[in-house]
Amino acid sequence: MLLVAQFSPPSFVVAARRVAGMTKYLSRLGYPVTVLSSEESGDGPIEGAAEVVRTPDLLASSLNWRRRRAAAPGKASTASPPSPLESVVVPDISAVSWAPFAQRAARRLVRRKDPDCVITTSPPQSAHLVGRRLARHGVPWIAEFRDGWRFERPRGDWPLQAQRALDDRLERSVVRRADAVVAVTAPIAADLEGRYGRSVELITNGFDPDDVNEGVAVSHPLLDPERLSMVHTGSMGFTGGTARHLVAALRVLHQEAPQAARKLEVVFAGLLSTSEAELLGSPDLDGLVRCVGSLERNDVLRLQRAADVLLVVTEGSRRRSVATGKLFEYLATSRPILVLGSETEAARIVLTAHRGLAAPADDPSAIANVLGKLVDDGPPPLAGRDELEPYSWPVLAAAYARVVEEVCSGR
């Protein structure tokens, strides 16, 4: 199999974790996987991959709005603001920064390896342009949507009608031409099925049980053992999500229940947009909120396991389909999860699996009420680990293998 993904390990972005899980566990099922990725994701092998090909990428230049600004320990790690080209190039900036390099590399790989199947995963949506090109030459193709394309776009719709029309045509050509379509959340699958009248496979994100088996940390030097520690790991503010309502809720809690506020800390570990870093660094939040910067993955996992509560921040009703890869890492920790966005797929998964609770994403009073109860009553009890089995990568990889077999059987 040829897996085309702009972001892959060792990249810090959460999308790379899906590539890691797919590659590792499909290979254990006997499916050799070649990963075609961007050199912006870093160097080195990927566990389970028969080969890793990393192409040039203009995201290594100033076009990269995710470019990290390193921070000292205990400070926020921030990124440059988006490039103006983000609002110009359809379907995304990667169509010019990476996809041309990826298409040339994919053609060479097809001549050299003759893959039985190609899987393209988005975002960026331009990754699917690689699969569409290979499909014209007879390579069976699976198109995977981690986010919606025209559905619940993370950064809002295009400003011009011509851009929207082109984006519509590109999405239509991908969904109709692919031999199989995979979505990572039920709302995305339902949208594609409803608009295009074709079957869409639901294969969620997941967690790696090998990470779970490393043990559970009972403390972490970045957390205050005298407080209830709520931890958010990963990037914040790049896809529209914001901590603005959470910050408002913390101010409400500080005013209305100061004793509870003194027993709480909210810790952010990961890359923040500049605006989110400024918001979370407000002087009046000193003692309530701490930004500890980007950490190495092993330390992130330790921090998650040491938390009293893990935090997921969504956009609520504006993007109900969101359930990021980070959520599934959280599920594996045996720590309670608070989802801000009670209408979202993330909340549905957490509540169905009995792994935590949810609050409205944009109601500071409701959020403050939940935070106060967590401090006063402690985190909620959790269900057994059997509820998590459907979200483990060995199970998900087996589901993927069935899709691959169906697609390849017609070759």
* Number of domain units: 2
Unreliable spans: 62-66, 68-73
Name of the level-1 CATH class of the largest domain: Alpha Beta
Percent in strands:
15-25%
For the sheet with most strands, the description reads: 7 strands, parallel
Number of strands: 16
Alpha carbon gyration radius: 21 Å
- CA(first)-CA(last) distance: 13 Å
CATH overall fold name of the largest domain: Rossmann fold
Q: What proportion of the residues is helical, as a percent range?
A: 25-40%
CATH A-level architecture of the largest domain: 3-Layer(aba) Sandwich
For the record, what is the CATH homologous superfamily label of the largest domain?
A: Glycogen Phosphorylase B
Spatial strand sequence of the major β-sheet: 3-2-1-6-7-8-9
Mean pLDDT: 90
Shape: globular
Judged by helices, strands and strand pairing, the structural class is: alpha/beta
SS element count, helices: 15
